[in-house]
């Protein structure tokens, strides 16, 4: 179960995810942003595979890249893209926003690398996550211990469907 | 080379979170702001799955719920965008000011 060539895959996939993330927030055309976001999602699915989570990787590709991003692309087609491209793309407070957010990001990184508690917890052996029965174990969790959250999530999806249809119809 | 510990994944998640937050705070196009919110949610998911590598399956179950919530939120947010675009013919964030006094 020893991973093969892990540093190469990690740096390649994380570089891909970061470059695509930068493309998402800087492109003028929303379609380019959506395609860059799909690339980010696929790179993250590869990283989930490296973290011994094949079911989450599959759900990410099917639901996120194949469902939510298709929804985004449909709505971009409905909304006028040509007019939005000619306007100014970044708002007036972009400098303050970038400064504040970089401060927050540096704070996160400092907390992760300098935390003694996290270093202590990392010394313990990593969890035994067998790859062949990951879907079964996740299924047992979802239908056993987290049954209530599962049912509430289905109710949430029903409410979201009704809400989205009502918001998008021309005449209710 | 230094072996890849879960902290590497946490730093990648923090970087993606930073990029998503910059996108939300900086862009004027509503669709790109919604896509930056999806980027933030993906950073949180990566964080959850990285911790699940250390401690068991609960993180992955939580990540599946986060993906479900992201789908619901994207659907409703885009519905609101369509309704707003039908009225005002613009996707500019600065012009969403009908409630301003």
Would you kindly provide a written description of the structure presented here, covering whatever features stand out?
The complex is a heterodimer of chains A (172) and B (101). With 172 residues, chain A is mainly α. Chain A folds into two domains: 1-87, NADH-ubiquinone/plastoquinone oxidoreductase chain 6, subunit NuoJ (Four Helix Bundle (Hemerythrin (Met), subunit A)), CATH 1.20.120; 130-172. Chain A is built from eight helices and no strands. Chain A has helices at 6-26, 30-50, 54-78, 81-86, 94-114, 116-123, 134-143, 147-168. The longest helix of chain A has 25 residues, at 54-78. In chain A, 22% of the residues are buried. Chain B has 101 residues and is mainly alpha-helical. Chain B has one domain (6-89): Orthogonal Bundle (Helix Hairpins), CATH 1.10.287. The longest helix of chain B is centred in the last third of the chain and has 31 residues, at 58-88. The relative contact order of chain B is 0.13. Classes of the chains: A mainly alpha (172), B mainly alpha (101).
Secondary structure topology:
The complex is a heterodimer of chains A (172) and B (101).
Chain A: H1 6-26, H2 30-50, H3 54-78, H4 81-86, H5 94-114, H6 116-123, H7 134-143, H8 147-168
Chain B: H1 6-26, H2 30-55, H3 58-88
Helix pairs in contact in B: 1-2, 2-3
Concise structural overview:
The complex is a heterodimer of chains A (172) and B (101). With 172 residues, chain A is an all-alpha fold. Helix content of chain A is 78%, strand content 0%.
